[in-house]
Amino acid sequence: MVPPVQVSPLIKTARWSALLFGLIYGKQRYDYLKPIAAEERRIEEEEKKLREERERIYKQLSEANSDTILK
Amino acid sequence: MAQAVQKLVAKVPTLVGAAVSYSKPRLSTFWYYARVELVPPSPAEIPKAISGFQDLIKGFQSGRLGQTSVRDALRNGLVATEVLMWFYIGEIIGKRGIVGYDV
Description:
The structure holds 2 protein chains of 2 kinds. By secondary structure, chain A is mostly helical. Chain A has one helix at 9-65. Chain B contains 3 helices and no strands. The longest helix of chain B is centred in the first third of the chain and has 36 residues, at 2-37. Classes of the chains: A mainly alpha, B mainly alpha. The A-B interface holds A 1, 4-16, 18-30, 33-34, 36-38 and B 29, 32-33, 35-37, 39-41, 45-46, 48-49, 52-53, 56, 79, 82-84, 86-96, 101, 103.
């Protein structure tokens, strides 16, 4: 088997510090995005309720107004 | 149906044994190389890394880096790309998801 290569210390430190930075960056971005997503979900829920209420009312009105003998 | 499940369950130990005996030599070669090549730098190596980085900057300032052959430049570019990819692996670990943030 080929003997393992002696990697230069610059490359080793660069690799592992890049891993560390990536870890920190991922964690911080996740913590930043999580409350924003929760807020958006909450707003979406409220708007959905409002929309469904309006649709219900509209449907009822349109059914009440559509009196034809063709039913 | 129940018989098929029973047969499968009876086969699991042999499957596990086969998987272990397949992966053992490969794992040992991986370990053989990783113990030398992939270890984090020991505290004694960090000053060497800093001096190596300063050498790089000096080489850039003096224009020596313009003299590298295309072959060496491509090789160094590949090594640099590999180092950058470790950043993305760290990000995957930090955000606990492979594709996208699971918020």
